[in-house]
Design a protein that fits this description.
The protein is mainly alpha-helical. The protein folds into 2 domains: about 90 residues, no CATH class; about 140 residues, no CATH class. It contains 9 helices and no strands. The chain is rod-shaped. It comes from Anaeromyces robustus.
């Protein structure tokens, strides 16, 4: 290599390999043997081969110098490109690290979301079960609840139309309790049992006394039986239904007394009617005799 290029600042990483340049020139020289000009020079005896070789050498030196200058000229651009590539590698590495971290964070977030979904599903299931139990519990409480007012009315009030409504409500509660399949396992049903039994006995006795008093009215000779039957028995038939459901012995007792009383009443009325007919006939016969 010519010494005039020794002072050019060429980084070691971008050193020009002149061996490659020489190889290229050698290849050029080999290819040039086939060139017509060179062939003509060998064939032309008048051409001074030394001068021609020197000329060729000068041309090759010029070409070499041109290529070297071009390499040197592009070296700075190659340095910039190399730095840019390094910067790009650094940025890409940083981006890769960031994306990897972001991917890990997304994985953690995904796991948290799954945990929240499972927890939410568990809460919804518990809420559904609780609402179902609450509805059943409300139904049970409504079905077995005996209010203090109902107890007072049953025990203290006289038998009238309002009392009939209270008895119907009591009968509904007792029927509901009786129909429960697991009443032995429900503690509240065990607690309410004695109170319902007490109310059953009190109600049955009050109804019994009420109907017996009405039956006594039928024994009066001047009583209006159809009116009593309508206003006292048909009107309060739900009380008798309660006795049939809750105290059948008392219901049978009232029925027998009612049958006996009505039979006696109609027997008395029939006998009275018969005596009256007989008396009319006797009076008529006596009148005819006169």
């Amino acid at each position: 290599m010519n010494g005039k290029y020794d002072d050019l600042l060429i980084p070691k990483s971008y050193e020009v390999f002149f061996d490659e340049v020489n190889d290229n020139l050698t290849e050029f020289n080999n290819d040039s043997l086939n060139d017509s000009v060179i062939k003509e020079a060998f064939e032309n005896k008048s051409v001074d081969l030394r001068e021609y070789a020197k000329q060729i050498e000068n041309e090759l030196n010029d070409i070499e110098e041109t290529h070297i200058l071009e390499y040197v000229k592009q070296s700075q651009s190659l340095i910039v490109i190399n730095d840019e590539i390094k910067d790009c590698d650094s940025i890409l590495s940083s981006m890769e690290t960031t994306l990897t971290k972001f991917k890990m964070e997304l994985g953690l977030i995904n796991n948290e979301i799954r945990k929240l979904q499972n927890h939410s599903f568990s809460i919804n299931t518990k809420l559904h079960n609780r609402e179902k139990v609450q509805k059943e519990l409300e139904k049970l409480i409504t079905g077995i609840f005996v209010s203090p007012d109902l107890i007072n009315h049953i025990c203290d009030d006289k038998v009238d139309e309002q009392y009939v409504k209270n008895v119907i409500e009591l009968n509904r509660i007792m029927k509901y309790v009786k129909e429960q399949p697991n009443k032995k396992l429900i503690h509240s049903l065990k607690d309410i049992g004695p109170e319902l039994e007490r109310l059953r006995l009190i109600t049955s006795m009050k109804i019994r006394n009420f109907f017996l008093e009405k039956i006594k009215l039928l024994k009066s000779p001047n009583s209006n039986v159809p009116m009593i039957q309508k206003n006292s028995f048909l009107k309060y038939k739900d009380l008798y239904t309660f006795l049939l459901d809750r105290y059948k012995e008392v219901a049978i007792e009232i029925r027998l007394k009612y049958i006996y009383t009505i039979r006696s009443y109609y027997q008395y009325m029939f006998e009275k009617y018969t005596r009256h007919i007989v008396k009319l006939q006797v009076n008529r016969i006596e009148k005819n005799k006169k």
